[in-house]
Amino acid sequence: MIEVKGSVIDKQTRCVHYHSERDVIAIKFYCCQTYFPCVYCHEEHGCGKHAVWPKERFYEKAVLCGVCQTELTIEQYMTSNYHCPHCNAAFNPGCQLHAHYYFEV
């Protein structure tokens, strides 16, 4: 199982900040190459050197489905229509509002 750091509250990567039924992804932060459920968890428990994924690296695996533990590339995640392409778990569509915290836009 892939380690997810931060204020994680369950095995599906929900955290104290985001814990709805659809909050089941973790993001590998570009700066420290470590998975966290959200930007707030990274701010509280991370490396302190926040950096976003550059567009030219969107082919790399950096999104973890907390339901099936499948790692997705950023491209796969962005084109997933808010569902895991492996297990069909629903992802939170509201996450698109926070994409700039993780990915170059």
Q: Would you give an account of this structure?
A:
This protein has 2 helices and 4 strands. It has one domain (25-101). A 4-stranded antiparallel sheet has the order 2-1-3-4. The radius of gyration is 12 Å and the shape is globular. With 105 residues, the chain is α+β, with helices and mostly antiparallel strands. It has helices at residues 39-45, 74-78; strands at 25-29, 34-36, 61-65, 71-73. It starts with 24 loop residues before the first strand and ends in a 27-residue tail after the last helix. The model has no long low-confidence stretch (mean pLDDT 97). It comes from Anoxybacillus kestanbolensis. GO terms for molecular function: zinc ion binding. Keywords: Metal-binding, Zinc, Zinc-finger. It holds the Pfam family zf-CHY.
What keyword list fits this structure?
105 residues, alpha+beta, four-stranded antiparallel β-sheet
Specify Rg, calculated over alpha carbons: 12 Å
Which structural class do the helices and strands define?
Answer: alpha+beta
Task: Bin the helical content.
Answer: 10-25%
Number of distinct beta strands: 4
Number of helices: 2
| SSE pattern | EEHEEH
Mean pLDDT: 97
Q: In whole angstroms, how far apart are the ends?
A: 30 Å
| Shape designation | globular
Share of β-strand residues:
15-25%
GO molecular function: zinc ion binding
Pfam families: zf-CHY
Protein name: CHY-type domain-containing protein
Organism: Anoxybacillus kestanbolensis
What's the SSE blueprint?
Blueprint: E1 25-29, E2 34-36, H1 39-45, E3 61-65, E4 71-73, H2 74-78
Antiparallel strand pairs: 1-2, 1-3, 3-4
